[in-house]
Amino acid sequence: MASILDQYEEEYNRGAVRRPNQVGELIGPGFSDARLDADVPIFNKKKVNFKPQDPITHLVVANNFLVMAQSSNILLRLDLEHPDQPDEVELPRSVEDRIHKIFLDPTGRHLIISMNSQDNYYLSRQLKKPKPIVKLKGHLIECVGWNWQNANDNTTSAILFGTSRGLIFESELSSFEDRTFFQGNVEQYLKQLFTLQGKVTGLEFDRMPSGDMTVYKYYILATTPGRLYQFIGQVSQSSEPPMFLSLFQQYENGTEHPQFIELPGDFGYSELQLFFTKFRQPACKFAWMAGPGIYYGDINVSGSSPSSVLANTKLMSYGKNEETKTSKPLSMILTEFHVLVLYPDCVKAISNLNEELVYDDPYPDRVGRLVGICKDVLKGTIWTFSANTVFKYKITKEDRDVWQMYLEKNEFELAKEYCKDNPMHMDKVLTKQADYLFANGKYTESAALFALTQNSFEEIALKLIKLPKKDALKMFLEKKISALRPQDKAQMTMLVTWMIELFLNQLGELKEQGQDASAEFDNMQEEFRKFMNSNIKVKECVSINRSVVYDLIASHGDIENLVFFAVLMKDFERVIGHYIQHDNYKDALNILTKQSDMELFYKFSPLLMQYVPKETVEAWIKQGKQLDPKRLIPALVQYDHQKLKDQGSEAIKYLEFCIQKLEHKDQAIHNFLLSLYAKLQPQDLMRYLQQQGEDPETICYDVKYALRLCAEFNLKKACVHIYSLMGLYEEAVDMALCVDVELAKQQADKPDEDDKDMRKKLWLRIARHVVEEEKDIKRAMEFLHECDRLKIEDILPFFPDFVTIDHFKDAIITSLQEYNSHIDSLKQEMDEATQSAEEIRKEIQSFRNKYAFVKAEDKCSACGYPLMSRAFYLFPCGHKFHMDCLISEVLPSLQSSKKSQVEALQRKLAEGDSGPSHKTMSSSTGLKDMDVKTKLDELVASECILCGDFMIRCVDKLFIEEDEWSSVAAEWE
């Protein structure tokens, strides 16, 4: 339990924090500053529960590893993650020797001890006993420049030493036991690089970006009590140690002079600190504690200044109160936004943004005089100590008030960076930045920021309305629209309507000034359309209130934007109607083709077809199968082909596309195309009819309608074709004779080959026409060769009486010759038939006398039992079957009618055999039984079942019938 004094001290420390703006403040709607974080100080000090055996002289902490030196020259090493396991190391010393300084690298692995006797030691975390740095004997180490890039636990890599005599050394210390160089020494090498005027109080170096991949670029900062030096140069990656020798040689040789800053009034010592945002990343800030104050600034390694890496430097005084004048600062620590200065009796934190004192922590007398302060670079903790007490500082939200400091300096972007997690603070920054921009005439940028704040909408809007130009007001409204929630319907409607009104007013003013063809007008028009089209919330709002927007645009007489809005709302019917009303048919058709509602095609196509038929048909063709051609027929029929001949041809073009490409079979489409061919392009009618073919099942047009249409327009060839399709060959021939005899001959050959009488009749019609109408006897005689059914006697009645035999003498001779050859062929056929009949009679006689032997041991080919046991059949092929075996084999394959006949004949034979007096039956009864057997033989024994057609018919018969599967399966089991 803490003592009363300790409790008092903790309460006193809470009051040491400077807490600006203690009272809660209402910024605007939605934000209330509760100042919950103010109760927790930025620097929270806590006393470490530790009482040393001897007074503490030095203390360093790195990577949660603490090393403490006591006046008894005993080092206490402590892993703060395991504080219950301390490690004591005793230093070798003479009687009066004391520790001068100790240095711990950022990883907490390597420790260097400098003694007042100018002996120096190295102690790694693995070693239990310090080892002397032999080559540095006789030098008092004042500072060490650690290598921030080193990741090796067993070596320090290249480091720098600064001594009390102004010497700068480079060395590398190692804890390896099996070293190959400098046996027995911890230093790999030691090289003096440079000499400064006065003791070296601080050394820091870090790597810089380099464009050359073969070299590294470094900067080195070194301080004396009154000067800050800079050394910048390149180091080859392949160079042998010492690494920085070439860098310092350029200053030793006089080619370069070291940059330095000198401050007057030094008090014999100084201190140099760097700040790293993260370990092993480049340092971003520096601070140098000197006599007149703390010189601080940024580290700039971008190369903008080749001879310096220090930027934005300032000198901060220690303070103006009387207490600080009487005592000098002992040490300091640099954080991201503060410098902590250690005095013998207090610790003060000064902001490096505005140089104000933000924290003052006096220590009570019982603690004793403060000795030192240090910082754990990796963990961010800060430690102070006196001879008998150790304190630890924890930093909590160091950047909590940084935003306000940047805001006071009008550095708004930095202020936003440090208050982005606090909406109230962000609102303050945005408000002040917006006011700043407004005061400087940047109204548009100011309006965009005002829209992001929680300030009153009405107040800002009235402020912006007073401006002569409305761009800032539009920006404000647009930003507010984008920030509205989906449920804010009323606000959205109001703001969107206001924005549209502003745009229309600006466009109207430009038109009145005659600038409607200027770039400014085009940009304004583009901006308006982008506003209407790009924002989803705006599109939804204007879609719901489209009637209001229509009225608003119409009130300004802006037809162009009215059409644009209608297109945006996909109100294409209104747009197309507008263009048609103004006789702008091409634009109407262009809008029609860009939309996807096919009903609008059916509605507007009749009118468009009258004025832009070609373009309309092209639009239809582009739509392809999406359009129903039947519903476009009203648009196709509304034309006057006397005035608009092109329209008819375009209609034919579309119908041909439907038939040929889309393969429409609808009869109405084909009939309409047929009518257009008959009226406008009769030369293409026959081509269409021939493409349709002559099969009535595949023809798509109405044949009777086509015949009536062709007859109406006197298209005789088409009529001939249609008569032929209808099977009216006589009418086809009669019509063809009015056109061409050759066409009539083609029609005469179309009847079937079996209908010879019709073919003959048609040819006689043609012959009569040729003889009677054309008086061409010779041509009529040629028909005798073209039609084999025509004879000379068929066409002789058509000849006039005065015709001499000379006209058809050759035909008569040819006909007689054909008759003679026909008689000869008939004679030959009769002789061949007589000879064949004689041969058949001989074969029948030979079959009557044919016989075969049956042996007693012969067996039935079906059942395998002796053949002579009962009635049997003997076939010429040699196969033998019992009568009942043959019937049982043949019966399943017979038709049902024949099967019933066989069964009836078997019953009749059975009745005859079972009669009591069958031995004395009459001859008539025997003849009747013979007839029954003969009929039975014809049905079952007409052929051998093994080598006749019966076997071929049974080739697909199953080996095992379906009803036999169960019994067969049982047998196999």
Automatic annotation (TrEMBL):
Domain (Pep3/Vps18 RING C-terminal): residue spans on this chain: 856-953
Membrane association type: Peripheral membrane protein
Keywords: Coiled coil, Membrane, Metal-binding, Zinc, Zinc-finger
GO terms for biological process, alphabetical: endosome organization; endosome to lysosome transport; intracellular protein transport; lysosome organization; organelle fusion; vesicle docking involved in exocytosis
PROSITE patterns given in the database record: CHCR
Family of this protein: Belongs to the VPS18 family.
Name the UniProt record assigns to this protein: Vacuolar protein sorting-associated protein 18 homolog
Protein's gene: LOC106054438
